[in-house]
């Protein structure tokens, strides 16, 4: 066993204080390294250095974002619904007296660029384990994807791989994909965004904690064997910028996923939770055992002793720091009463899942890791998990803001004749960001579990939680990088308002938020300015709307060389609906139903899809946000859902009214006869992206009741026309007609065709 | 007492709960069966659900064929017990040689999820007896390996003996002769790729045609009881 002689133990570290250590190569700054020496009173061992470098990385420590994220806690509205919030694996909100829901969105951007299929797949796997760790059964996933230009050759490498990865993992683990978004913009060429959301349901009594408490309790590692995959994933991939040359081959840092083992993990964990066999639980994701051991020990009341040679390995010759840093997927850490340990192992075995006791909870206050009897780690666990460095990074407003603000899209040349506007409707419907995304979503299972009430392409996913009561949830995931580039505060609030409205449009009441904050390098003061503005926008917005941020994720370093992505906060909003049978779908109802517009259309074209598609333009000021109006709108929609006074509804967002009509016609197969309000400029009315607007379809006989409901809330409603099965496509009176075939020819089949399929 | 339909859970089965819901909504009693158990607890019929049994290791359904429960299912099928395989369950039945042919990678090489329109080609099986002849049904089809293949002689024989049970009206995967489901000679064992258990409620499915599958097996079982 000569290989073990070379292991860098605590004793060796004490005896060789001047040994040169690769702290810089591991991403630590000199003062950070000195702090580690102060904490330990000696130099760290190789394993300890690896652990600190991981836990103090941007990804794990939130060292650049923490000072700003505090706003969420300061401004979050107090609600009795919130059972677990920021800092837990995922936020948990109560649905009723018995059941709760947990949800979270997380990024896996860099891995998905390096190795699209496995990068995206393990992103889904990771977020699912966060949900399990709260005691919940995962019940659905969603994804928010951003790629470079659709006809860039690399997009044909990245997009199909990412979609295959999300589909393969989600389909095999057995979770319906209930919605999401896909956008294209050259700014994401070297930095695609892959944000995955998962949601789970639990009896409130089954809520789990990550505490390793109770001296003498057993630490059990459950799931896959530990290999060399993903070593340094968080410190290498998630906490640094890709070089412009693209020469750095980071592929060995991407993990490989096995959804089959994940499916077994779900079943075993839930069985163990239900039988009351688990004291504490933590998933192994980024930072692997290092993170799980230090976080559970830090959250507990004592210390922990681990014998690392007991960890089942799938590669030979792994050294202790490799085992501690490995990001092998599909593993969970359990803290178990010794009297129940045997039953835990037996239940795992019944499912064919590996479970191994690797350590015990102690009262030493230290996290001690031995390897074949030699101590390689002896640290205070809080110093890893909770006491990492915190930076107040310099912030500077970008110099070009003034110039951008005056470069308004409202001054760009527009189509004027009926034929030009008609053609613009079709061109927009065919554009990459607005066209039908079936090529992607058909690769996802949407109906497993049999509880998906609304999925793609509805505004939000709606899932039934309880077959007896019909209670369910709605979720939407939205972002708009262009608006956030123009104004990160407003852009973040526009994303929040859109996700909130998308949930409301189904008839659900929004109750909670999870966010994924995708930004460039925090070392760039302009990026930090964008970040601070966006966080403030979300925190202020949630305070106003009365729904708390329950958790999420920050992804920095989304840039290649000096070029950062658009600041892209992606917002997930969760809503509750008392009876899913009363949800409001996308569509056009029946012949003779009234089509009307809620909200007001202003001349707001800056940052719009039209400005981008037709002029390649990004400038001006994004649309106004009116959160009071959004709250009234949500209140109205949930009331109209309850009383079943709407046949259909659809949020207006990218592409404006024209695109909303295209989608409703294509989805329903019905036609629409539309008459624009007198004096309305047809181009502005069709393509403006003013927020706070919803297209509604009112069944015959309900028009007066709906109008009264709007007026009593001070909400503007404008009748636009009627739904008609005998009208072929869109009839815009006094202007033009577009047949359903023309709409479908423009709208459908675009993604596959553009990718060369 | 209502008929008891056993639903097998293999490691990696995904639609076991959904099959149980379909059985329950169809008026029968679902009974959970475990892959590693020779017992099938005096059930009247067996449903092998969709999913990725044993992680699709080797080939879809290839490992499940050797599970403890399949020994018992095979013996019961030989005695005439109704056995249904859906999606991965169909793959398991083919791998177990309870049904002829094989299910290979879709012709377009992708997993695809779309509602499939099917024609019920025969009502002379345990699982389709309640359908009108040539009835059209809509079940979600969602799979990556659902392309039905067999040699020409087998296909001819299936056609001639009325054992093609479901046929695609818009072939989604390149299946030979648009075959979506087949039966054994006795008609008690049926496999199909599309998912009847995801078409049992108007709220969640593209149709409620899937309830006809449960109605069929109930009719078949009560007829057997009368004989």
Automatic annotation (TrEMBL), chain A:
The gene is purL. The active site is at residues 59, 108. Keywords: ATP-binding, Cytoplasm, Ligase, Magnesium, Metal-binding, Nucleotide-binding, Purine biosynthesis. Mg(2+) 1 binds at residues 106, 553. Mg(2+) 2 binds at residues 130, 283. This is Phosphoribosylformylglycinamidine synthase subunit PurL. Its main location: cytoplasm. NCBIfam families: FGAM_synth_II (TIGR01736), PRK01213.1 (NF002290).
UniProtKB/TrEMBL annotation, chain B:
InterPro entries: Class_I_gatase-like, PRibForGlyAmidine_synth_PurQ. Pathway: Purine metabolism; IMP biosynthesis via de novo pathway; 5-amino-1-(5-phospho-D-ribosyl)imidazole from N(2)-formyl-N(1)-(5-phospho-D-ribosyl)glycinamide: step 1/2. It is found in: Cytoplasm. Its EC number is 6.3.5.3, 3.5.1.2. Keywords: ATP-binding, Cytoplasm, Glutamine amidotransferase, Hydrolase, Ligase, Nucleotide-binding, Purine biosynthesis. GO terms for cellular component: cytoplasm. Coiled coil: none annotated. PROSITE patterns: GATASE_TYPE_1. The active site is at residues 87, 195, 197. It comes from the Bacteria. It catalyses: L-glutamine + H2O = L-glutamate + NH4(+); N(2)-formyl-N(1)-(5-phospho-beta-D-ribosyl)glycinamide + L-glutamine + ATP + H2O = 2-formamido-N(1)-(5-O-phospho-beta-D-ribosyl)acetamidine + L-glutamate + ADP + phosphate + H(+). PANTHER family: PHOSPHORIBOSYLFORMYLGLYCINAMIDINE SYNTHASE SUBUNIT PURQ (PTHR47552). Part of the phosphoribosylformylglycinamidine synthase complex involved in the purines biosynthetic pathway. Catalyzes the ATP-dependent conversion of formylglycinamide ribonucleotide (FGAR) and glutamine to yield formylglycinamidine ribonucleotide (FGAM) and glutamate. The FGAM synthase complex is composed of three subunits. PurQ produces an ammonia molecule by converting glutamine to glutamate. PurL transfers the ammonia molecule to FGAR to form FGAM in an ATP-dependent manner. Part of the FGAM synthase complex composed of 1 PurL, 1 PurQ and 2 PurS subunits. This is Phosphoribosylformylglycinamidine synthase subunit PurQ. It comes from Glycomyces terrestris.
